[in-house]
């Protein structure tokens, strides 16, 4: 089987793959969490198949185990942020292509406005992390996200890096931010900025949901 272009693969991963109960639009509860895991797994499997890669080959490219990849594709588990970045690099797609699609905005708003109901979402249930894209998906110099962390939720146990710079404002809860060898505890109203090339990770140390307005430049998704 020949390799497909990104456009052809994306055409196969449309909103028809979303669960019929509308859980992709931010519904709460275990059902929505499971649906998000299944949706992400379907995307990753379609991309892998479209590139003629076996699970063994993808495992070699990402350093993830075959068992872990199989669980992710079946929606049994979800990857950490670092693992997701490895998968996107191995599959040669931006991580933004793995956000769940929602209703398309009107044509006149696409370059400027993101309505609440049209925010693309990425839900990683195993790490208790959800990201909502707040800026248009058209090309730009920066990107703004609403990051929601369940109690104990995190970016994953591994530090990760990428190009650019990022900043944020803790809207609620408490965020423990690790940058290289430094640890910072940020509470509601606190802000941060650092170079994304510095190894970093983060975790919600609050007993409540933590939300963060997160800005990256250049866009990471």
TrEMBL record:
CDD domains: cupin_XRE_C, HTH_XRE
Domain of life of the native organism: Bacteria
Keyword Oxidoreductase: no
Pfam families, per database record: Cupin_2 (PF07883), HTH_3 (PF01381)
Entry-linked InterPro entries: Cro/C1-type_HTH, Cupin_2, Lambda_DNA-bd_dom_sf, RmlC-like_jellyroll, RmlC_Cupin_sf, TransReg_Diox_bact_type
Basic and acidic residues: bias regions: 1-10
Region spans: Disordered: 1-30
Keywords: DNA-binding
Keyword Cytoplasm attributed: no
Residue stretches making up the HTH cro/C1-type domain: 44-98
The name this protein goes by in its record: Cupin domain-containing protein
